[in-house]
Amino acid sequence: MTPVVRSGLALHWWVWSALAAGALVVATLSLVVPSPSTQTTPVVLAHSNVNVLASSASLPKTVRSRPVELTIPAIGVATKVTKLGLQPDGQVMVPTTTRSAGWYIDGPSPGQVGSAVILGHVDSYKGIGVFFNLKSLKAGDKITVRAANGVVTHFKVTKVVQYSKSNFPDRLVYGSHGTRALQLVTCGGVFDHATGHYESNIVVFSTLVKVSDDKNAVS
User: Fold this and answer.
1) In the CATH hierarchy, which top-level class contains the domain 4-51+62-213?
2) Taking the model in full, what pTM does it have?
């Protein structure tokens, strides 16, 4: 399936597939029809049952600036963030290594109104990837993003959901809903050795709760 862009919203089907022996686990933009055993309804792994989040309306506005560092203390993640655009064929670029994450540049930067999206690999033949433990996050866990201009945006997890790739909610993950959100995406669920694909995606939804400054800005 060719990815479609409508009103600035890229509609994606994320399929993290194993290539030939010795290759990394990478993402492609093809639609994989799940087998009958595949989970076809979302599995909520964590959800906030109380209002643990402050309203972002009163927080300082942020200007567009590329994220350069992502920190998730609960799962020991402290990684650089690269930029992920579209390839000439319309497919989305993916991180070139499992050790770092990538920001989808056609969306807002973290802290701006809309849904900023950062993607990372779950694993490869060499071992675990930067987002291997993403599914373990709980509602209320902290996510911090440092931008190149020195602004630090602080988010709290609202929910963690596993989606079958046939039912990936493109508009929910990438669309703007009037909030200042950050979504983290990786693969998850069962790995189908016959097809070389993970059958699901893990999506962590979070919302902005604080904006601060970091003197160590990156030029």
Assistant:
1) mainly beta
2) 0.80
